[in-house]
Specification:
six-stranded antiparallel β-sheet; 160 residues; alpha+beta; 2 helices
């Protein structure tokens, strides 16, 4: 699986899906501001590794937010739920809570700006044609596959 979708893109998609059809595709946009590349190597098995983390300032802007048709607390709830379920690194990296700015444009629409810190993993997997040379081997950016056990055997010893 390719690692091409940042947490910012995932959050924008989630918000769009949750507010569809009231918010149109062109009415929601997200971008990254300043960032910090945090070198953080860790062997993840299967010859893959975590190379670094990308910590950045994210901005999401929702134009023409229909605050009379969509309860603004639903938007706040969606943001909170997504961060709880999808961004478990927040406490480990002391990421700040989101800031929101709401500007009423008309009786039917508002502009909502959401600013928050996010952090993405940058993982490497072996690839003979990969563009990244690391310790003499070739790699590409991708999520490292995870093997999940389908069954397990548990043996216990009697305490006699």
């Amino acid at each position: 699986m390719s690692q091409t979708i940042s947490k910012l893109q995932q959050l924008c998609d989630y918000l769009f899906q949750g507010m569809n059809p009231y918010v149109k595709t062109n009415d929601i946009d997200g971008w990254q501001g300043g960032g910090q590349l945090m070198i953080n190597t860790e062997d993840l098995g299967l010859d893959g590794c975590l190379l670094a983390k990308w910590k950045y300032d994210a901005v999401i802007e929702i134009e023409r937010f229909p605050h009379r048709k969509v309860n603004p607390y639903n938007l706040l709830g969606m943001i909170a739920v997504w961060l709880i379920e999808e961004d478990s690194d927040r406490d480990d990296y002391s990421l700040s809570d989101p800031d929101l700015d709401i500007t009423i444009i008309s009786k039917d629409h508002a502009q909502v700006t959401i600013e928050l810190e996010l952090i993405d993993d940058i993982e490497l997997v072996p690839d003979e044609q990969g563009p990244i040379r690391y310790f003499g081997e070739r790699y590409r950016i991708s999520l490292v596959p995870i093997n999940i056990a389908e069954s397990a055997e548990l043996q216990t010893k009697d305490a006699d």
